[in-house]
Amino acid sequence: MSALLDDARRVVTDxxxxxxxxADVRAGxxxxxxxxxxxxxxxxxxxxxxxxxxxxxxxxxxxLLCFHRKGRFWVQPGGHLxxxxxxxxxxxxxxxxxxxGVTHARVPTxxxxxxxRHALGDGFARCAWHLDVGFVVLxxxxxxxxxSDESTDVAWWPLDALPDEVPPxxxxxxxxAARFAQAALPS
Length: 187
Hints:
By secondary structure, the chain is an alpha+beta fold. The chain has four helices and eight strands.
């Protein structure tokens, strides 16, 4: 059993169950991990675990999003786990660097803030479902961002004025992430 699989089980078990259907999603992801083991972390299965960074500014009012080339929507940086990832948080931070160029970021807590099961469109080839574990990351909007091959744009958006082209539920997920970060930050 891999250390990454152990971390995935721990992180998902420790997640809160607020939000619509959160308890069912958590139970489903834990069952998927139990049924498939390490394979649940790779790309071989049509449904697998991914990690993402829910990137907010220090005021917790703006989010950094990428316009995904395949999906044709604005979404948080994130993606597949790699064999060299120490844990899910490390995978989320690697994806953040790869997809936005952001290297100076702060993690207010190592606990995951979000768990989302979402279907993917036909443009994603073999991938059909992602079981995405999201971590809150704080970054400075003044820092330079870059666009990766996976996206056509990277931009900061006010949480109360997200673009039209976001996946269903992303606004609620980002709002919950902001509340989660607020609770994790020192007063």
